[in-house]
Amino acid sequence: MSEIANCILDVLPEVLSKVLNVNKESVKLLIESGKLRITSTPDPKLGDYGISLHVLLKTIEKDKWEDIGSVLSEELYTVTRDKCWVEKVNFINGYVNFTVNYFNMLEKLVDSFIKGNLREELTSIGKGTKVIVEHTSANPIHPLHIGSGRNSVLGDTYARLLRKLGFDVETRFYVNDLGRQVAILAYGVKVLESKNISRPKDFKPDHWYGVIYALTHIIIELSRLREEVNHELSKFLDLCANLCMNILSEERAESIPREMMFAICEITWKRNLKIEALRYARFLYTKLKQMKNMGSNDVFGLLLKTLENLKNKVKEYSEYVKAERRLALYYPDIYNALRSGIKDHKEAEVEISKLMSLAEKEDPNTVSLFRRISEDVLEGFKQTLQNINIYFDGFDFESSNEILNEAHNVVNELLKTNYVKIVEGGAVEVDLNAASKDHDYIKNLFRPDQAGRFIIRRSDGTTLYITRDIAYTLYKFRKLKAERVYNVIAIEQAREQKQLKAVLYMLGYSKEAENLHHFAYEMVHLKGMRMSGRRGIYYTLDEMLVDNKLLILQKLMEKERTPDVTKLANIAEKIAVANTRGVLLSVDPGKVLVFDPRKISEMEYGVIVEYAFVRAQGIIRNLWNLEFLDDQSEVLSEALELTKKIYKTDLSIEEKKLVESLARFKNILIESYNEMKPNKILEYAVSLSLDFNKFYEKHPIISERDESKKSLRILITILTLIALSELMDIMGFPKLRKM
RNA sequence: GGGCCCGUAGCCUAGCCAGGAUAGGGCGCCGGCCUUCGGAGCCGGAGGACCCGGGUUCAAAUCCCGGCGGGCCCGCCA
Asked: What's the CA A718/C1' B17 distance, rounded, in angstroms?
C-alpha cells in the first residue's frame, strides 16, 4: 500500500497543478500536511485507493467537477499506469480513485517472500542494536494472575517482534525481593516453619506461597482492623453519650426525630450491657443521611463522619473475614499454624520491620530466607510462563549487592547536584520542581503536571524502591550494555518511570534517558470480581490455561467418533496457549482489559489463526506430500517453479483481498513496533486468517484445471503460510500441523 | 485540589495522533450451505444516539472547548 501510495503522491503535484491550474508548491504543501492523502476506498467497486480533492475543488462550481475529473483521471492514468501498478483511474464526487493491478502486486510479494529479501528488509530496522526488554517482574509472593499475564504476553510478544526486526534483544525479569510484601511472606513462612509445616511436593510453589502470603496478610489486617473498629466504635458511643445528655435538654430537641433521640439514649444506657452497637450505628447512619441539613451542623456532622469511618472499617473487616474463611476452609493446616503463631498486628509489624531492615543490611540468614522464598516462587513462575512459551534471558535480584551498592552511589552522586538535599528528619529528597526550572527536558517529561519531589533515601539510611530502580536502570545500560531499554510496566507506574528518566538526566545520562522507554499497559479487570493478591483473590494464569484447555478438549472430542484422548489433549493444550496469549494480546495496551472467565470460550483469537495455518498446510501436504514446517526449502523451490507457470490474469475479489492483506505484512510489523502496540500483530493475523478462509472457500486450488490459476492460488497459499508462520513466531503461538 | 487515560450495537474490539465516501472485525442471535483441497468453515440477515452539548471545516467517531460516566497517578509503599 505505502509504495503504491508514495508512487502516486510523487506524480500528483505535477498533474494537479496542470489540470486544476493551481500552484505546484501549494499542492506539495497540502500533501506534506496530510490534507491530501491516500486512503482505502469504502468499496472495491469504487477502486482500491482514493484521494479526496475537496480541498482543491471547493472553489470550483460543482457542475464543472465532472469535466475536470475526467481530464484529471486521464492524465493521472497515463503517468501512473506503468510505474505505480495502476490499472484504472476514475473520478467520483470529488475523489480520484485508483484501481490497482493486483497481479503485479502479487509478483512483488513473491519476490519479497519467496525469493528472499524479506528477512533483510526486516532486520535492517534493528541493525543489531542491543535492546533490553524488562517485563513481568511480578512480586514473588503469589502466582501470576491475568494482570501479570498481560504484562508477560505484551512484553514477550514485543521482544519477539524486536528480534524479528533485527534487534539484539535480551529479556530480563526484575525480582522485587526486598519489599514489605516479601517481608510479610517471609514472616509467615517463619511462623509456619517454626511449626514444622512445609510445602507438599505436589503443591506448586507459587500457589503455596500465595496462600501463605494472603493468610498472613489477612490475619494481620484483621487484628489491626478489629482494633480500629473498636476505636471508632467507642468514639461513636462517647458521642452518643454526649448527645443524650446535652442535646435532649436543649430546645433543639424538638427538631430531632423522636426515634433517633431514643436510639441515641438507648445506646448510651445499654453501653455496658453487651449491646449490638453496630446495629444502632447502622440505624443512626441511615437516619442522619436522610436529614441532610442536620448532618452539616456541628455535633451531628461529627457523628455522621464517625459513622462513615466506622462503616468503611467494618466493610473492609468483613471483606477480610470472608477471604479468611475461604482460605481457612481449604488450607486448615496453614491457617491454624499462622493463626496461632501470629499474636497480633503489633507484634507482626515489629517482626516484619525487623526482617526488612535485616534484609537491607544484608544479614546472611535473612537474605538467604528471602532468596529461598523468591526463588521458589520464581520456579513456579517459570513453569507457568514456559507453558505459554515465555522464557527469560536473565533474572536480576533487587537484593543483589550490585543493585544495593549502586543505589547508595546514586544517592551520593545526586547529593552533589543542586536539586537534591537532606530534608528535615534526615531523609534525602529530589526536587524535580527546582530541576525543571533549569531543564526543559525534565519539565517536558511531566508537563502539564508539576514534576514534584520524591524521597530517595529514608532517614534511617535505607534506600527505596525507586532508588534501587535507578540503580537497576544504570545496570541495564552499563553492565548489560543496553543501547535501548523497554520497561514493560503497568501504566500506574507512569510517574515513577518519568522520575527515573529525570534522575538519569540529572546524573548526566541524557542519552540513556532518551533511550529508556516505558511500555505502559492498562490494568486487567475481572468481570464481577475484584482481584486482590492481598486477600488471595485472583484468577491465575495457570487456571486460565487449564480452563481453556478443558473447553477445547471438549470440542475436539465431540468431533471424533473414537477420540484418542492423549493426542487430543496435546492439541488442546497448544490451542489453549494460542487462545490465552491471544486474549491477553487482543486489546490495545492503553485500554483497560475487562476479562470475564465465564466467557473464556468466546475468546478464540488463537484458534482462528491456528485453523487457517493448519488448513493451508493441508493443501501443501496433499499437493506435494511436503510438510511446510519440516520441508520449507523444498516448498519454496516448488513455489519458484510455479512462478514460471502463471500468466497475467485478473484476480477474483477474494484473491485481491488476500493479496492486499499480505502486502500489508511488513508495514504492520513496523507500525506495531513504532507504536508499541503488539495487539496490531494479532489483529492482523486474525484478519489475514479470515481472508484466507474466504479465499479457500470460494476457490478450488488443487483441483483447479487452469494451470495458471492453480499455480497462482498455490502461490497465494504459500505466501499466507509464510506470513502466518512469521506472525505466530512473533506471538509465541505453537505451530500446529493438524487439529 | 492537580494531572493522565478511556467511553463505538446485547457483549468485546479496530479506526482517533496524521479529519474524507456506506464506521471494519469478532462473540452471541436468526436463516441458508449435511462438506470434490479438513465445517473450529463459508454465505445472508437483524442489531449503531460513534457518551452529551457547543465550536472549527467543503467534510468530524477523528481536531478544539465545556460537561457527564469509568479507570489510574500525586507515600520516608513497592
From this structure: 36
pLDDT in tens, A217-273: 999 999 999 998 988 888 888 888 888 887 666 656 566 777 778 888 888 888 888
Find where cell 534506600 sits. Answer: A463
Asked if strand B comes closer than 7 Å to A591 Cβ, the answer is yes
Contact in structure between A12 and A86 (CB atoms under 8 Å) = no
pTM over 0.90: yes
Q: Nearest to residue A417, comparing CAs of A448, A381, A397, A442?
A: A442
Query: In a 3-state reduction of DSSP, which class is residue A737?
Result: coil
Distance A175 CA to B63 C1' (A): 44
Residue nearest to nucleotide B5 (CA to C1'): A590
Cα A587 to Cα A185, A492, A682: the distances in Å are: 33, 17, 9
Strand B, nucleotides covered by protein (CB < 7 Å): 2-7, 11-15, 17-28, 36-43, 58-59, 70-78
Which residues from 667-686 of A have any strand B atom under 7 Å from their CB? 675, 677, 679-680, 683, 686
**What is the model's pLDDT at position A127?**
94
Is the CB atom of residue A76 positioned under 7 angstroms from any atom of strand B? no
Residue A659 has pLDDT above 60, yes or no: yes
A559 CB less than 7 Å from any atom of strand B: yes
Rounded CA separation A382/A376 (Å): 10
Torsion of CA A585, A589, A592, A595, to 10 degrees: 10
State the residue for C-alpha cell 522520575.
A499
Q: Are A52 and A94 in contact (CB under 8 A)?
A: yes
Which nucleotide has the least CA–C1' distance to A46?
Answer: B21
Dihedral over alpha carbons A12, A16, A19, A23 (to 10 degrees): -140
List the one residue out of A327, A312, A311 whose CA is nearest residue A535: A327
Average confidence (pLDDT) over A283-309: 72
Encode pLDDT of A57-87 as tens digits: 888 888 888 888 889 999 899 888 877 888 8
Contacting residues for A221 by C-beta, under 8 A, at least 6 apart: A320, A345, A534
A426-431 contacts: CB < 8 A, separation 24 or more? Answer: A426/A459, A427/A455, A427/A457, A427/A458, A427/A459, A428/A455, A428/A456, A428/A457, A429/A453, A429/A454, A429/A455, A429/A456, A430/A454, A430/A455, A430/A456, A430/A499, A430/A502, A430/A503, A430/A506
- The whole-angstrom separation of Cα A319 and Cα A305 is 21
C-beta within 7 A of nucleic chain B, residues 173-202 of A:
176, 178-181
Report which DSSP code applies to A46. G
